[in-house]
Amino acid sequence: MKRSQTSVLFSFLIVALLFNLNLVAAGQENQPSSKKPKLAGARPVIHAINYTSIQEAIDAIPDEGGVVLLPPGKFEIDQPLVITKGDVLIMGAGSATHIHNKNESGKDAIAIHPPADAKLPDGKKDPKPRIWRVQLQNFRVTGNEKSGRGINAKWVQEIYIHGVTCSYHGSDGIFLDFCFEDPRVSDCLITYNKATGLNTIGCHDIVVSANHFEENLDALHCMDGFNLCMSGNNLDDHLRDGVIIENTYGSIVCANMIEECQGRAIVLDRECYGITLSANVIAHNGSGIILDDAHGCAVSANTFTLLAADALRIGPKSGRITVTGNNFSNSYIGNGNVKRRTNDLKAAGLTLDKTRGVTVSGNLFSSVRPKAVEVIEPTTNVIFGNNLLIDVESDHKKLKDSIIKNILETAAEPVKPESKQADSK
Predict the structure, then answer these.
(1) Is-annotated flag, keyword Lyase (predicted)?
(2) For FRET with 47, which of 25, 88, 215, 302 sits at 20 to 30 Å CA-CA?
């Protein structure tokens, strides 16, 4: 009798289990599948953790584009990661995703470019191939002294690099080569690269915003382009120059902190025009803003402090420049005190080097050396008015064929020669 009851109970449990399994299976059929999305038009997200290499995951992106998610971890490569498709997002887990290029023969870490066999709709080879809309986001990529560039993008339209740390490469950190439609680089950390931190050639409508650049050779090059909008960046400790702009027009460099470049803070050269340099703090560099070949430009509301030479220099190939509302100063903090020690009182002024057609108005020159304004002749057709000069010598009265008026010159407040204020750097 007990055996019969046990058999019935066992049979009942088997039936119940099978019934529940059928319910689970039915429920799973109604759940979204990562392999076959139910949403019309959707494509699966590619998780690189499920592939043997990051390149294999990138190669799995369909021709229409897609997303590759990189997991946390350190991933060593000795060949470039190559992206040849558009509408692609490569996204990591912040600095916890670390791609390290150990190649020592000059190869790049990441290469983005159209496929070599790109074709037109009629099947013919495309003579000007492009890819569109590639985004790199939230990961760290590093190299070594013998590796190539960190990110090398060519003919990529609307490229967007955001939240990427790009450091220690043997060449440029990021190189944008004729990525001429709307390139954007923002919120990145670009540091310790042997060449330029961000190097752009032939790019248009460029946004460079809220990045940190530190101890590259130069911070940024913008050449043969137009409409650079560079704002809110911090540049520090560069081994040569900060911002170099050549053969570029219609641009603005504003609200940046540029400090401790061994060379020049900002350079305009090779027929630049229509550029505004405004509201930057330019501190403790070898020199400040150098206009080697620039016309129709405005230099306004910048703070120049502790420059070793030439806070602002307007060269013989430059003219039609407006200089207004700038402050040229040392580390004076009031009551006869300077913040820096007496062996670090350097502060430079304005040099007009054989130029013409310049307006200098509404600026303050205080305790700069050797002169507030140095005039190298022939410099002509200058309006120098409504400037305040304190504790300086100046050549502005040498200006010929110029208008000089409403200049307020005041005696200096005595500066304590043995100030013991701590050096802030």
Answers:
(1) yes
(2) 25
Secondary structure in 3-state letters for 335-393: CCEECCCCCCCCCCCEEEECCEEEEEECCEEECCCCCCEEEECCCEEEEEECCEEECCC
* Cα–Cα distance for residue pair 391/373, rounded to 1 Å: 13
- 168 and 47 share a domain? yes
Q: What is the pLDDT of residues 70-98, one digit of tens each?
A: 999 999 999 999 999 999 999 999 999 99
pLDDT of 1: 46
For 237-316, strand residue ranges (E) read: 243-246, 249-254, 257-259, 264-269, 272-278, 281-283, 287-291, 294-295, 298-300, 303-305, 309-314
Number of structural domains (the chain) is: 2
> How many C-alpha atoms does 266 have within 13 Å on its Cβ side?
29
For range 147-173, the mean pLDDT: 98
Bond prior to 378 in cis (omega within 30° of 0):
yes
- Residues 55 and 128 occupy one common structural domain: yes
- Give the pLDDT score at 399: 84
CA–CA dist 76, 143 (Å, integer): 10
Taking the model in full, what pTM does it have?
A: 0.86
Claim to verify: residue 195 and residue 330 sit in the same structural domain: no
Dihedrals phi, psi of 204, to nearest 5 degrees: -125, 150
pLDDT for the residue 344: 67
How far, rounded to the nearest angstrom, does the alpha carbon of residue 30 sit from its chain's CA centroid?
Answer: 47
Mean pLDDT along residues 32-60: 86
Residue for token pair 């009182």: 345
Boundaries of domain holding 304 = 256-425
